[in-house]
Amino acid sequence: MVSIAKIIVDVPTMQTNRPYDYSIPAEFENQIMAGMRVEVPFGQGARKVQGFVVEITQSSDFEGELKAISGLMDLTAVLNKEMLWLGQEMANKTFSFQITCYQTMLPAILRAKYEKKIRVIDEIPEELYFELFKGRSEISWDEAVERNLLPQLLDLKKKEAVEISYVVKNQAKTKKRRMIQANLTFEQLEEEKIGLGKRAPKQRLLLEVLQSLNEQTISVEEIRKTTSVSSAVLREGQKKKWLSFFEEEVYRDPFEKQQFEKSTAFTLSHIQQQALSPILKALAEKRSEIFLLKGVTGSGKTEIYLQTIAETLKNGQSALMLVPEIALTPQMVNSFKGRFGEAVAVLHSGLSVGEKYDEWRKIEREEAKVVVGARSSIFAPVKNIGVIIIDEEHESTYKQDENPRYHARDIAIWRANYHHCPVVLGSATPSLESRARAQKKVYTLLELPERVNQRELPSVEIVDMREEVKKGNRGNFSLLLQSKIKERIAKKEQTVLLLNRRGYSSFVMCRDCGFVLPCPNCDISLTLHMDTKTMKCHYCGHEEAIPRICPSCKGHKIRYYGTGTQKIEEELNELLPEAKIIRMDVDTTRKKGSHERLLSAFGNGEADILLGTQMIAKGLDFPNITLVGVLNADTGLGLPDFRASERTFQLLTQVSGRAGRADLTGEVVVQTFNPEHYAIQLAQQHDYDAFYQKEMFLRHRGNYPPYYFTILITTSHAEELKAAKKMQEIVQFIKPHLKEETILLGPTPKAVARVNNRYYYQTIIKYKNEPTLFNQLQELLDHSQKEMVQGLQIAIDSEPMHFI
Questions:
Q1: pLDDT at position 168
Q2: For 324, which of 154, 155, 526, 730 is 20 to 30 Å away at the CA?
């Protein structure tokens, strides 16, 4: 009987979002497995597409003749059973295509165009080796397909005698090192030595090195480093057939130039021990419990993470640790590599394609047992997970904005249920949703109410910038903040300054006619960037020269308004010419390794001031920071978003926590035009619980999460009328099926109605219990296929982080 593979094909449309049946050719019988990628014919003509095998079966409901799988793309599964199942669940919950979910789980190198090679990694019978590889260490995938070698190579893969390596076209080549192996036995090499007599001392030395190998191999680099044998001598040795060269693939190590100071576990305080005990109990009992670890900044949450993971490793299990931003990764990597060494793999967007792939392989081969990384690390191919930890769980970066619109916390909980292990969500300022779940006992609340060194949290002073203006100070620095920064410089202490806006100025405006330079593709003004001397759109990436003359009235009174990090840096240099400043924002951290370099320089005391956007607000732990200044606490408060107050409180609390973390006392200065706002007042008092009560009261009154679930539906089209009309149809389609208490807001244009020459309309659904809603939305997508092929886009976001 012919075996049948059920395959999800790489054709992302609603009609194709299901498995298709293909017959397995006889030569691949018993070799193809679920999770492999294959090439299959699809549709009319000779079109070939990639697909994921999701199941092997013996029967099919298809009545015609099944097409056969054309070829293999892998020798083994790239997705295991857990990931295949997770992909199906994700697709349903995020209104995405299964193929998109599966591709999201893989490193870019497995999604890009690449060349594949099959390498020998273990002994193969000599006859077979010469038949398949013709005496070479590797052959290309194309050659293997052409010579019909895949069935035999599959057998060798099962025996772990060969492996597949990927070379990404125009992206990353497999890293190789040149190796040497002796061609002669010890005795034969001795004879060669005798034949040399006393002449050619370098060749004699080479023969001694080859004798010392004892059937092992050595890299050319190592021989050159440890002996005086030159390349010319090695070539001579090759000519005389004493040795042969070959290339060996090695992992790219993003941390090869870094030294990690070994660390041992700290003795926990009584409060830390109380928080750790329930987690260890769940670990021991292999129970999927969700813990919310609420600890003030500097309370030792990281040490609890480390000791939890140490216990996990002791049990022979693996651990997943998520951090919200790449900026947090360097210090977290230091902590983890220092404690667990080579057992740690790191995954984040700052790594090259090749480095990411090599880290992924280390995890997949179980060479790394601890994974540290940003959002997408939640899909790391970790087996036998013992614990999943999400640090700074309140961060919106854990939610993906594009399809599939998943939240890493939801995936973590799903995987924890699959592996029967605990999840630890850590934060000084938990999201209201998580804190509410803890209140309802859905999560288990663990609290760390004080810092580990028993030091007080830093004192926070609020400066009313309206009063500064009255005093004639129109700059961005209050007199109080200026004097405190000068004090710190005199004492050789460090300052962190937060401004949540990059660039130079927010916009340029003509003082004669009021013209503001807009983006030609989006309904938003362009932002001035002084380093590149250009105007840029932060939505679509459009860039143009800074205008000298007003395009509207031809006047010359073009002025800069608003403030960005670049402008603040200039102002600081004028106010404090003696200060050494490091600016850290998206513009200064584009290059690979720039986060580590800037933070390392600041940590080494090479600057007095670290100026940056919100990426510097959390995770930084430098003992010499004694002052934190927030230049404009109101940046986020003016946004038309129900989470604006929560985000402001979290940001102020997090950045305040950077001061006074060691023996020196910390101070915080918060500048604001809105000093009476409760988010700012309660951040001054470090009072999360009071903020939680106040904000929950307001959310209840406004019918917002966590009292209601939410769904955001967005339509977009190059023609505004089509986007608006479709959104109106959607509302009419859904409304009759909703309960009376369900709230429907819209349709309305989005806050920025045009982005990249597409018009956007939205509707928000707020509901408590709508059992048929997800089915209705799925039906809506099915019915809209024709329009979507013609340029209409419909996006459905369950529990969005932003409504604007």
A1: 46
A2: 526
Q: Which two tokens stand for residue 1?
A: 């009987």
- The span from the CA of 130 to the CA of 60, in Å, is 41
Give the DSSP H or E segment for 769.
none
E-state strands within 500-637: 507-510, 527-529, 534-536, 543-545, 558-561, 581-584, 609-612, 625-630
pLDDT at 398: 96
Show the domains of the chain with their CATH numbers. 4-106 (3.40.1440.60), 114-168 (no CATH), 176-249 (no CATH), 270-448 (3.40.50.300), 459-502+564-698 (3.40.50.300), 709-798 (3.30.70.600)
CB 501 within 8 A of CB 613: yes
- Residue 439: how many CB atoms within 10 A of its CB? 14
Do 415 and 282 meet the contact criterion of CB atoms below 8 Å apart? Answer: no
pLDDT at 171: 40
Contact 321, 307 (CB under 8 A): no
Contact 677, 637 (CB under 8 A): yes
Cis peptide before 19 (omega within 30 of 0): no
Residue 558: strand, helix, or coil = strand
**Amino acid found at 432:** L
Using an 8 Å Cβ cutoff, are 640 and 804 in contact?
yes
Tokens representing 350 are 């700052």
Predicted pLDDT of residue 264: 81
Question: 27: which 2 tokens?
Answer: 């030569």
Q: What is the 3-state secondary structure (H, E, C) of 42-85?
A: CCCCCCEEEEEEEEEECCCCCCCCCCECCEECCCCCCCCHHHHH
d(C-alpha 802, C-alpha 679), whole Å? 19
Residue with tokens 């813990």, as numbered in its chain: 291
Selection from 539, 314, 293 nearest residue 426 by Cα: 293
Instruction: Look up tokens 């080859």; give the residue.
Output: 210
List, for the chain, all residue ranges whose pLDDT scores fall below the cut of 50.
Answer: 168-173, 503
Stated pTM of the model: 0.82
Position 254 scores a pLDDT of 67
Determine the Cα–Cα distance for residues 144 and 153; give it in Å rounded to an integer.
Answer: 8
Tally of CB atoms within 10 A around 629:
26
CB 19 within 8 A of CB 7: yes
The token pair at 188 is 């034969």
Residue 804 and residue 794: Cα distance in Å, rounded? 16
Distance CA 423, CA 417 (A): 9
- List of residues 6+ apart from 271 with CB closer than 8 A: 448, 449, 450
Please name every residue paired with 544 in a beta bridge, in sequence order, or none if there are none.
Answer: 535
Sheet of strand 176-182, all strands in order from the earlier edge strand to the far edge: 217-219, 176-182, 243-249
DSSP 236: H
CB 527 within 8 A of CB 505: yes
Instruction: Quote the CA–CA distance of 590 and 350 in Å, as a whole number.
Output: 9
Residues 6+ apart with CB under 8 A from 740: none
Of 80, 99, 83, 82, nearest to 91 (Cα)? 99
Residue 454 and residue 437: Cα distance in Å, rounded? 29
- Which tokens sit at 507? 């916009």
